[in-house]
Amino acid sequence: GKHVLVILTDMSSYADALREVSAAREEVPGRRGYPGYMYTDLATIYERAGRIEGRKGSITQIPILTMPNDDITHPTPDLTGYITEGQIYIDRQLHNRQIYPPINVLPSLSRLMKSAIGEGMTRRDHSDVSNQLYANYAIGKDVQAMKAVVGEEALSSEDLVFVFV
């Protein structure tokens, strides 16, 4: 009947160990040398979180993992995001610029957000505001990249609205 928080760290090390064991057992490797059953193995762990209908208590998991070379397409973060339906992307570059919390908004996601927002749960316009924020943030990232190439002087007054300090 308790509410339990489980922090799983570091799932990347777990996946690497799984790859080593698979190689030692001479199993046919999958993507980037990881075993083909890694999805099932990770899902078995992650899907222990939740609630049981009719019973008190819950299990909440926060899996933490590193991304080799900050590659979000690496099998471990890719499969984890797919299985868990969401992720919070902590960005090394934001951390190095002392921006805290260093959350990179665009690759962070929640596939379940749509079913948990709106009238009766959050603001009625939550979805519209969220979409507008994401769109403006994406424009800002594009303008920052353009600024690095052409310089701030070449940006239009509309572009300058989106330039990060």
Descriptive account of the structure:
With 165 residues, the protein is an alpha+beta fold. The chain has two domains: 1-111, P-loop containing nucleotide triphosphate hydrolases (Rossmann fold), CATH 3.40.50.300; 112-165, no CATH class. Helices cover 41% and strands 15% of the residues. The strands form two sheets. Strands 1-2 form a two-stranded parallel ribbon. A two-stranded antiparallel ribbon has the order 3-4. The longest helix has 25 residues, at 126-150. It is flat. It starts with a strand and ends in a 5-residue tail after the last helix.
Instruction: Walk across the major sheet and give the strand order.
Output: 1-2
Number of helices: 6
**Pattern of helices and strands:** EHHEHEHEHH
Low-confidence stretches: none
The count of domains is 2
Q: Give Rg in angstroms.
A: 20 Å
Strand segment tally: 4
Spatial shape: flat
